[in-house]
Fold this sequence. Notes:
Domain HTH lacI-type: 6-60
Strand content: 15-25%
GO molecular function: DNA-binding transcription factor activity; transcription cis-regulatory region binding
Protein name: LacI family transcriptional regulator
InterPro entries: HTH_LacI (IPR000843), Lambda_DNA-bd_dom_sf (IPR010982), Peripla_BP/Lac1_sug-bd_dom (IPR001761), Peripla_BP_I (IPR028082)
Keywords: DNA-binding, Transcription, Transcription regulation
CATH superfamily of the largest domain: Response regulator
Amino acid sequence: MKYKAATIKDIAQALGLSTSTVSRALRDSHEISAATKQLVLDHAAQLNYHPNPIALSLKEKKSRSIGVIVSEIANSFFSQTINGIESVANEKGYTVIISQSHESFEKEVRTLQYLASRSIDGLLISVSSATKDLLPLKALHQYGFPIVFFDRIVEEIATHQVRVDNFQGAYNATTHLLQQGYKRVGCITNSAHLSITRERVAGYVAALDKAGIRLPASLVKYCFHGGMLQEEVADAVQELLQEKKRPDAIFATSDKLTTGCMRALKKAKMAIPEDMGLTGFSNSDLIELLHAPITVVRQPAFEMGQVATELLLQLIESKRPVKDFETKVLQTSLITPS
Length: 338
């Protein structure tokens, strides 16, 4: 038998009341006596009645739901960020709808269109590595749709942004390798136009400059898919190994790139750190369990999700248009094996 959700009409018929009386009782209206309210609530519980969210959104002109777009949920950084998002959203009575772009601009645009058509109240997004055309996001923003960028931000759209100090995190990681005695540090990084790529490569270069080291641009390898394609990371590692003066260490600028480098080096039968030094950005707890655990830059992912959600809900619930926007910059931690 097909499931049929209980309605206000069902409660009204069972109790011999009008639907308007039941509706007001469920809303705890002062017009309804305490005895009637209790009668209605008890019967609603028996029928497992829940308000229709679509009907409520039409009435209140709000769905009390927010959309989230990330590149990949399986990425430990994004999964922790989503936990932070849900911790705030659930407490405030909002439902979270999560989607993955898989680093595809086309999928990101389809998801934007789908979420907007479902009347979500706002959007949290970390743009894909393929996102260069900002027109779809700009169109939503200009229409007054609340958007907050986190991690991978877009400077061209004036709204709240939450990121980590990517420059300092990369600077610290590269400096750590230099302090361990490595002299020729290569870098494997994400798509060139992403904000995190520009900031982390800049931190890497600054650390080398501070140490008086000048390395050729060929030691920086860009992976368009950000580690989602292992073959792409493996090719980048092989290109570094085939350099006339190959690096003695690698700095990887994201979770997937860091683990991808570890796989590629293992396949090349190169031990870490004996044959090749390695450090990178990673929020995976599995790093600590490896035979040769490495030093990593850890981001406050859960906190980033919380802060981004709080800012988005401020936009959604503001009675007036928000014109002053914040950029929240969180600090990273350099985690060394114990």
